[in-house]
Amino acid sequence: MGKTSCNHGIELPTIAAGRVRLRSLTEDDVPSLFEIFGDHEVVRYWGHSVLPDLAAARTLLEDIREHLAQKTLFQWGVEVNASGEIVGTCTLASLDFENRRAELGFALAKRFWFHGYMAEALPVLLSFAFGEMKLHRVWADTDPRNDRSIRVLERLGFRREGVLREHYLIHGESQDAVVYGLLNSDWRLDGHQ
Q1: First-to-final CA distance of the chain
Q2: pLDDT at position 4, please?
Q3: Residues contacting 57, CB < 8 A, separation 6+
């Protein structure tokens, strides 16, 4: 596992994951961030608006770096080994080291859907979270209509824990959030180390 340095001096480890690797995001990745988070279909169920332009993607990168410096959010780029292109992101957000928990987030550019990249990236991220970071719990929430994300979470062993009614106001519409949780002990029982 290598390390990639950010402007703020904090480093994220680079994590190998089959055909992809997780690494820190850089200025060169701004167009990829815009492709991902500037697409209405990708952010349809997110609690944030679509990025309108490259300047907004640069601001997003600065926000990611600032949260990294504060140790409240670790967001990796998902890079395809063969091309070196960032195709998505994986995030541990709402980091709470006292209670040893974090929220999982992930997004993939639409042209890379159905290639299995997240199926390779997320297990190694969870192994890192439960291993090196010594987290006890990782949770996620998603819109109940987001079938793809629900399938990903359930394949990873996350358990449905409840519904937060009208938890988000997205694109002027109140949306529920289905909460999923995964404990370190669940992860290990499923044969992961």
Answers
A1: 16
A2: 41
A3: 30, 31, 33, 34, 37, 38, 51
pLDDT of residue 102: 98
Length of the chain as a residue count: 193
Question: Which candidate, 151, 97, 89, places its Cα nearest to that of 129?
Answer: 97
CA–CA separation, 13 and 68 (whole Å): 12
Is residue 60 within 8 A of residue 51, CB to CB? The reply is yes
Backbone dihedral angles phi then psi of residue 24, each to the nearest 5 degrees: -60, 150
How is domain 2-136 classified at the CATH fold level? Aminopeptidase (3.40.630)
Q: Walk along the chain (193 residues) in steps of 10 and give the mean pLDDT of each run.
A: 47 93 96 96 83 96 96 97 96 96 96 94 96 96 92 95 88 87 89 62
Count Cα atoms within 13 angstroms, Cβ side, for 142: 24
Taking a C-beta distance cutoff of 8 angstroms, is the pair 57, 92 a contact?
Answer: no
Q: Which residues of 52-86 are buried (b: 16+ CB within 10 A; e: fewer)?
A: eeeebbeebbeebbebbeeeebbbbbbbbeeeebb
Structure tokens that stand for 20 in this block: 């992809």
**Which amino acid, 65?**
R
Say which residue the tokens 């990903």 belong to.
152
| Sheet (strand 20-23) strand order | 2-5, 11-17, 20-23, 74-80, 86-96, 101-108, 137-142, 173-183, 159-170
